[in-house]
Write a structure and sequence with these properties.
Length: 132
């Protein structure tokens, strides 16, 4: 069984809490887990609308405004799934963000252990055959 995980990661700078702490921070939040990619797209696009209401679209040097970036089943490069949206050349935010849809695979632990052990046996046989 598979599900779709929608998350957004914020990368930003903050004052270090102690001397050797980095000022570069990252915070990832889960927006939701969905049964289908389409449901994740709908929720993800609503989340992007919140960001668009708070921040302006990027303006290129020639004065053109960037297009609104959206999750979609076939709106990515060459008609592929668009499962990652960032602020780069999209929104002018004082931080970076990475909104993404990831496929979660739910599998039986017993079956997975069996498959991993079988793969180990096949690999060992392969390595032994390479020595001959």
């Amino acid at each position: 069984m598979t599900k779709q995980l929608l998350t957004i990661e914020f990368r930003y700078n903050d004052v270090p809490k102690w001397e050797y702490d980095s000022q570069h921070k990252s915070k990832t939040i889960t927006i939701g887990v969905y049964d289908t990619f389409e449901e994740a797209c709908i929720s993800g696009n609503k989340t992007l609308e919140i960001l668009e209401n708070k921040f302006d679209l990027h303006t290129f040097p020639d004065g053109r405004k960037a297009n609104k970036e959206r999750f979609s089943k076939n709106g990515g490069c060459f008609g592929s799934k668009n499962s990652l949206v960032t602020n780069l050349a999209y929104l002018r935010t004082p931080f970076e963000f990475y909104a993404k849809i990831t496929t979660l695979n739910y599998e039986d632990i017993e079956q997975t252990i069996f498959e991993v052990l079988e793969a180990g046996k096949r690999y060992k046989e392969f390595r032994n055959s390479q020595k001959d």
